[in-house]
Write a structure and sequence with these properties.
The complex is a heterodimer. Chain A contains 24 helices and 2 strands. By secondary structure, chain A is mainly alpha-helical. Chain A folds into 3 domains: 11-257, no CATH class; 264-277 and 284-307, no CATH class; 311-599, no CATH class. The longest helix of chain A has 40 residues, at 404-443. The radius of gyration of chain B is 29 Å and the shape is globular. The termini of chain B are far apart. Classes of the chains: A mainly alpha, B alpha+beta. The interface between A and B is large, with 60 and 60 residues.
Amino acid sequence: MRVLPRPLEFIRSSPTWIRDRSGLLSGQMIGFTALILNAGMLAMIAVLFDSPTSFRRLLQTLDFGSLLGLLLCGGAMAAVTLLVPLRQTGLFLAPRIGRYFDQIVLSGISPLRYMAGTIAAQNLFFALMLFLMLPWIVLVVAIGGMHFETFLGNLVVIWLFSVLLAVSTAAISLYVTEPLALAVVLITALVLSLISFLPISIQPGLLTPVPLLLASVPQLMILGPMTAAMAGYGAIFYMSVLMMSACIFVGLIQLHFGPLYGLIRDNSAFGEVVHSGDTRQRRRFSFRLHIQRPSEIAFFYQNRSLLLTRWEGLIRWGGGLLLLGSFVAAGCLLLAFAGTSLFGSMTPAVAGNAAYVSEMVQMLYVAGQLGTAVTAVLAILLFSRNRSTDSMPVRVIPGILLRAGTLDWLAFLMSVVGTAIVVSQILYSFAPRAEQLLQVAANASTDYLSQFSQVNATRWAVETQIIVVVSAITVYLLQRNFCLYFWSRLMAAGLTGFLWFFGLVVLPMILGLMLNERAFRIELLDKNAALGMPLALLSPLFASIARMGEAPGRLPWDVPLTGFYVLNAVLWLTLGMTLLIRTRRFRRVDDAWRAGRRNV
Amino acid sequence: MLRILQMLRLMLILLLPLPVSSAQVLPLSSGTDYPGLDIQAEYGWDGFVDYQTPTAISFLISNNSSEVLEGNLVLREPNGFRSLVLDRITVAPGSKRQFGSVLQLQGWDQCEAAWEGPQGILWQRPLTVFGLRQYASGKAALLYVEDGGRSLKFPGVATASGGTLPGDYVPANGIGSQVIPISIAPWQMPVHPGPLTALRAVLLAKNLRPESLNDTQWDALGRWVCMGGLVFISQQNDKLINRLLEACPLRSHGPPDESASVDLGSGSLYRLPPTTEGAADEQQQLKIAEIVSLQPPRILPGLFRNLEQTEWSTPSSEQTLVRVMAVLLIYAVTSTLTLLMFRSNRRRILIWTCSVVLLGCLGAAVAGISVRMSRGDMNWSIITEPAAGGIVQHGMIRLNSAGGSSFRVAVRGHNPDVQINYREPDRRGSWYYYNGRSEQTESWPAFSLSSDLSLKTPETYEILVPISPWGERHLRAIDVQPQDTTPVIQLSYQPDADGNPLNGRWNARIEGQAGLRPENLSLKLRILHTTTQEQQTLQQLQETSRALLPHHSSGDDSWVAEFVSAPLSWQPQPYDFWRDSESGPDLAPGMAQIWLEGTLPVESLLQIDETRTEFRAADEPSHQFLYQLPQSAIPAEWLQLLRTAR
């Protein structure tokens, strides 16, 4: 049986394991941990005893042993949430500040081995915490009233949570600096803990031990019931373990593969980023710390093992699609449920209220449109790469090698178009009922609402989605173009969003409406007031508003959107050509540089 | 061998979480009842479930099969984690069995009752634990017990409005309280007087047979009458009257008379004249409603609630708390001192840490065990009520655990009973100058029936009190003792010329037996007075008065206290926002509560059995005297003025 010893050797030989193990038995570590634990426990008890009335009332529904057991687990969870991510912040920060990170890279140690040591060392820390909690546990057992099995179950989940915190902090540290990663992890843990109190069926709070702690004291279930199945302690235990284990597994995969960050000529020197023309600049203008860190980590990940790298593309992009797909699936379920409830609640008395009916139906279709738009934004952020990574070749499956940019295009189109198709299918299924309701309601109305009797809800279902898809492709082309100029895709995304929103959404709409209203008071412009609406319709926002029948100036709901489509087609052509030319130029340079490296 | 050990180690780690998930094991239901089995079950009465009062749960089990059926009656919360085993029931073939209890199920969203036998679930049904109506302090509830399934409905109210339903009795001219009829079958009669304390009166149908109620139910009814309840029984049913008299532990001494009402303890039995069906029956029902409507509520529950909210000392509890906190603080400080060992080697740090933790564990174990073994604190008060035929003693026991979880309490007397309040009263007196009246209904607080653990000694009632460490529980005890101690009271009133019931002069003379001589005796009155102001609007004020009765003479065998021709001073009762804004005052217009209050220096007959009680009395017990005058003792001309004055 050689399976077991190899992972243990893998961890034991990690320098971070040796370092953390040695540092565990230090006065500062033990004293600080004891201080946090005991202070937290005593503070919680002091709060309870400070209000005798509340304390007695609480004790009438809870056993004191259960209460103290809950406090112990709560204290352990709080200590773990605060201290475990804190202990992970020295992962890259310490060697980079200490200027020995290059030695770590040169040693050839795999990143996973390097990080596995510190992740595994937090188990020792957890054991230390449990050891320091022993007197409290003995007190609770001596006083009595605690259910030992549930206490043990809580500890198991808290331990798993500590591993999850360690893995997620390490994984996020690959992309952002450790203090930022710490903040992200702490805030996410806090938010998920608070969400655990909400009575929702799809409970993301299962990633924290909070639902299980609540379930361990049945009387507290009134605070946050798991309405999915009003699950018992056992079911919540297994769900928590399953979800945490899955996230830990995903995190470990992420740690194995590392961030997708290309090494090209500009950042090919470890510890330095050199662009053409830097010799003519002052030294201080050639510090590029935002590129330096990810480049150094990219160097580090050159040491990674070849396990699963033949499937890297499938795992990375497939994982991204899966993540996005799960959000989309949840959103579509919600949309379908909302539509069914909406149409089910339309009693004859309500159906005559034209304003209410049209508003509700519009809200449903607009919600679908917004959902697709949010998916598109996430896809744009997820499936765009910066300057160094765009042309990086990636193995998708054994035998197929594609560039990262190409994979991004495929994934983006799959996610956006796929979402649009699914949402339009859902909205299409509601179309007959929506049309019927709108006809009944509109017939009773004489104002602008009467136009809704002519609405083709099928067209609403499809065309609103097409507007989103078309706009999304335009934005994506803009983003991809800017990414070729930026080393950070978030910066590119910011510029893209700004230009698109103000340039293509707001400006045509405002100008068109002002022109239509003759607001400029310039004779030449006033003469061409009729061009106002067509100009406004170039904006995707105004086009959607017009299609939903809410445009001013008595614009019919089925006004043609030819201008919008033509403009976007032209933008596609222009941006696409630019992207193609620029991409080819960069790829030529980068491929030549890579070929030169390989020959060396 | 090493590999086998490694495999075993791995399997152990993987199997460890399994026991954790076995928290809840629910029996499987077959979905159908046992053939020939019919069970009727109800929680509460006729849609009344009030979580602030004791609630009866009743079962009528009819075994029409040919087998003996036995099993546990269980209540489960389907989507929660709670279950309650009521009792093990055995029913012979072809027989019926009544089972009742008193339960507090607040917090249960749903409830399923099941009878689980060795062969599986014999019967299972959902039980409604949410009530349609609750008792209101300003209304009187009348329980109608009838075997044929008929309901009692008073004529007058046609449509529901403002909490009044068709069938309720609304008094004419607004004098008296509304009467809400509640109809039940005999099997729903409670087995303890507790649930009956929420009622003002009970009417037994004239065709009800004595054997429709079992002995426990009769005892409960009899005890409740002695506690101050009213029972109406038709004279046509002598057997029923005799059975009730047999069940009452107290009855007035002296030759039997033919008067319509008989005093039984603090309550009364009304013997209704015979009637025929139809209009005469209806007239009689209205007459009953009128009597009940004008009957004021009992003053005792309110006195107890005030007692429950007084402060009391808990020295044992404070000591154990200090002990535990000291151990934890010392541990916290010593463990944190490790921070200073930054120059020490690892061996020294390890030794220090292990020592601190081990000593901490030892200290925690000693503290925990000592806390668990500590006797808690106890404070108790007795209120003695002289009644027709004897005395009724009510005890309020307050317990504070010094750290343990479950303790015995035993009470000694003639035939005592002790129950645990479901929860302590809300001490809102410390918040926002609240008057302290949290429960609006004048009844016992809610409880779940605790059985007597000392079955061999009828003079003792012993229960196990589950109490959280440093938690507080309140108990109610009651005992009824036959004695000849009823005071004789003569109260008369001379009105003033203006006819204002608040003016005028009173004469009061009370004569009692030496065995029950109260001190600091005072006469208290409480009324709801209706006035008309200049703007022709009616305002209702609750006003009290208090007059000290000095002892005039005191002999060896008797005592007398009186005051002659004295006016009474009246003060308006403070407006209780929490009570009055929700349900209104508990006194209806035209009602008056008059009672005597004092302290008793003698030891009460109801005692705490200290040899069997695991609490220690922190203070001396208080013993009070209370006697609420029956309506017949209140001057009629004064009542008339009260009801007509504006």
